[in-house]
């Protein structure tokens, strides 16, 4: 996973592949966003940012309240969906 996190474009592709797989399995957009939020919480608590983009996301995550973090998670899913 560290290779995935070292490059932001690689991370977006990795996330996009997972979002696509989840949709093919019939998982709803809401469930995917909820999972993205939980992954964001995990990454915030357990993983050091590996690049500038991840540092910015972490700083935004840290200053956001729960509602704003959920919005960030949904936006990351949307971003990954475009890759």
TrEMBL record:
<dbReference type="InterPro" id="IPR024702">
    <property type="entry name" value="Uncharacterised_YmfJ"/>
</dbReference>
<protein>
    <submittedName>
        <fullName>DUF3243 domain-containing protein</fullName>
    </submittedName>
</protein>
<dbReference type="Pfam" id="PF11588">
    <property type="entry name" value="DUF3243"/>
</dbReference>
<dbReference type="InterPro" id="IPR021637">
    <property type="entry name" value="DUF3243"/>
</dbReference>
<dbReference type="InterPro" id="IPR038292">
    <property type="entry name" value="YmfJ/YflH_sf"/>
</dbReference>
């Amino acid at each position: 996973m560290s290779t995935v996190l070292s490059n932001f474009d690689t991370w977006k592709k990795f996330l996009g592949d997972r979002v696509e797989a989840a949709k093919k399995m019939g998982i709803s957009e809401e469930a995917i966003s909820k999972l993205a939020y939980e992954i964001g919480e995990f990454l915030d608590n357990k993983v050091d940012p590996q690049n500038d983009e991840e540092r910015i996301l972490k700083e935004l995550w840290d200053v956001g309240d729960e509602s704003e973090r959920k919005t960030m998670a949904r936006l990351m899913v949307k971003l990954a969906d475009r890759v």
